[in-house]
Specification:
The protein is mainly α. It has helices at 2-22, 31-37, 42-70, 72-92, 96-127, 134-162, 164-177, 179-184, 197-203, 208-225, 227-255, 261-289, 292-307, 313-341, 347-376, 378-401. The chain has a single domain, classed as MFS general substrate transporter like domains (Growth Hormone, Chain: A, Up-down Bundle).
C-alpha cells in the first residue's frame, strides 16, 4: 500500500509535466490566421470550429466511459497519438475537407484527454485522502497551462512569421515528447461499490457496449438525483465558450489593425501572464468572495467582449487581459464544484458531459459569430455576443437562487 501511495503521489508531479508539455501548442495564437491564409472565410473558420465541437459531442461521453472502464492512462496515451496525426493533416492540407479531418482528429484527442486527466488526478488524491487539496493543485495545473500557452503563443508567433511549416512541425515534436510523462503515471484504483462494478467490467469485456450503456444510465441517474451538477455545467459552459470565442477570433481582430503574427502573439503572451495570476489567485479569491465570484466573473467577461465593439486597439487589449483573468479564476472553481459532487465511478464520464455542454455552446456561437463578422464586422458581432452572454448568465444565476 505504501508503494502504491508513493506512485499516486508521483502522479501529481507527472501530471504537472504532462500539462506543461502538452499545452505548448505553437498554433494556439495563429490557427485562425493560418486558416485565413489558406482562403477560409470567418464563417468557414467558424464551421470548422463547429465540426471540432460536434465531434466532441459525439465522442466525449464514450471517451469518458472508456477512461472509466479501461483506464485513464490508456485514454491519455491514445489522445496524444491522435493529436500527432491531427497536426500532420493541418500541416499538409490546403482545403476545407483536409482541415475538417484535422479538426476531427484534434477533437478526438481532446476527448480522450479531458475527463481522463482530471479524473486521474482527483482519484489519485482521493486514494491518498488529500482530495481537499484539489482546488490548490488544480490552480497550479491551470497556472502551468497559462505559462505553457504563453510561451507557445510567442514562440509559435515567431515560427509562423518565418513559416507555418515550422510552427506545425514543432507541434508534432512537442506532442510526441508529451507522451513520456503519461507513460510513467500509475492508474489509480477506483473503489468498487455496490454490485462489484470492477469485477463486472472484467467479466463483461466481450459485452463492452452493454457495459457502456449501463455506465451512461448510472451517470444520467446521478445528474437527475443532483440537478446542481447540471446547473454548474450549463452556467460555466456559457461563460467559457464565450471567452473562447473572444480569444480565438481576437487573432483576426488584431490582424485587422495591421499587427503581424509576432505582435499578436505578444498580446496573447500578456493575456497569458494575467491568466496565470488569475489561476494562482483563484483559491484566495473564492475564499474571499465565495460563490459571488461566479456572477462577478461572468459579468466582467461579458462586458469585456462588448468593449471590442468600440474598435479601439488599446481598449481591446485591456479588455482581453481582464477577460482572461476572470476566465482563469473561474475555471478551477467550476472544476472543484463539480468534482465534490460527482462519484468516482462516474467521474470521467460526467466530466466529459461537462465538456460536451461546452461543445454545444461553441457549435452555436462560433459559426454564428463568424457569419455575423463576415457581414457586419467582428466588433459588432462581439457586441451582440456580449449582450447574449450577459443576459444568459444573469438569468441562470438568478434561477440558481430560486
Amino acid at each position: 500500500m505504501k508503494l502504491l501511495h508513493k506512485k499516486l503521489e508521483r502522479n501529481i508531479i507527472y501530471d504537472y509535466f504532462y500539462t506543461f508539455i502538452n499545452n505548448l501548442n505553437m498554433s494556439s495564437s495563429i490557427w485562425v490566421l493560418y486558416l485565413a491564409y489558406h482562403g477560409m472565410s470567418l464563417m468557414k473558420i467558424g464551421i470548422l470550429e463547429g465540426i471540432y465541437h460536434i465531434t466532441g459531442i459525439i465522442f466525449e461521453i464514450p471517451s469518458g466511459a472508456i477512461a472509466d472502464l479501461l483506464g485513464r492512462k490508456k485514454s491519455l496515451l491514445l489522445g496524444r497519438i491522435l493529436m500527432v496525426i491531427s497536426c500532420f493533416f493541418m500541416l499538409f492540407s490546403a482545403s476545407f475537407i483536409g482541415f475538417a479531418v484535422g479538426f476531427i482528429l484534434q477533437s478526438l484527442s481532446g476527448n480522450f484527454n479531458s475527463g481522463a486527466e482530471e479524473a486521474l488526478v482527483f482519484d489519485s488524491l482521493k486514494m491518498l485522502g488529500k482530495e481537499n487539496s484539489y482546488t490548490a493543485i488544480n490552480g497550479r495545473i491551470n497556472m502551468l497551462i497559462e505559462v505553457s500557452q504563453s510561451i507557445a503563443t510567442v514562440v509559435g508567433g515567431i515560427l509562423a512569421e518565418i513559416s507555418y511549416t515550422y510552427c506545425y512541425g514543432a507541434c508534432i515534436i512537442i506532442t510526441l515528447i508529451g507522451i513520456l510523462p503519461a507513460l510513467f503515471m500509475t492508474e489509480p484504483p477506483v473503489a468498487a461499490n455496490a454490485d462489484d462494478d470492477a469485477d463486472n467490467i472484467v467479466k463483461e469485456k466481450k459485452r463492452f457496449t452493454n457495459v457502456v450503456r449501463g455506465h451512461f444510465t448510472t451517470s444520467a441517474k446521478v445528474l437527475k438525483a443532483n440537478p446542481k451538477i447540471l446547473f454548474i455545467i450549463i452556467y460555466y459552459s456559457v461563460i467559457f465558450s464565450s471567452f473562447a470565442l473572444l480569444f480565438f477570433y481576437s487573432q483576426q481582430y488584431f490582424s485587422d489593425f495591421g499587427l503581424n503574427k509576432i505582435e499578436i502573439s505578444l498580446i496573447m503572451l500578456f493575456a497569458g501572464i494575467v491568466a496565470c495570476a488569475g489561476a494562482f489567485l483563484s483559491d484566495r479569491i473564492y475564499r474571499f468572495l465565495g460563490n459571488r465570484i461566479s456572477i462577478i466573473g461572468a459579468i466582467a467577461i461579458a462586458i469585456c467582449i462588448g468593449l471590442f465593439g468600440l474598435n479601439n486597439l488599446y481598449v481591446a487589449f485591456v479588455a482581453l487581459l481582464i477577460a482572461d483573468f476572470f476566465n482563469s479564476v473561474l475555471y478551477p472553481i467550476q472544476s472543484t464544484s463539480l468534482n465534490k459532487l460527482i462519484p468516482s465511478e462516474q467521474r470521467a464520464t460526467l466530466l466529459s458531459v461537462n465538456s460536451m455542454f461546452f461543445s454545444v455552446f461553441m457549435i452555436l456561437l462560433f459559426p454564428l459569430a463568424g457569419a455575423l463578422a463576415d457581414v457586419i464586422g467582428l466588433g459588432s458581432s462581439f457586441v451582440m455576443i456580449s449582450a447574449v452572454v450577459l443576459i444568459g448568465t444573469c438569468v441562470l444565476y438568478k434561477l440558481s437562487d430560486d
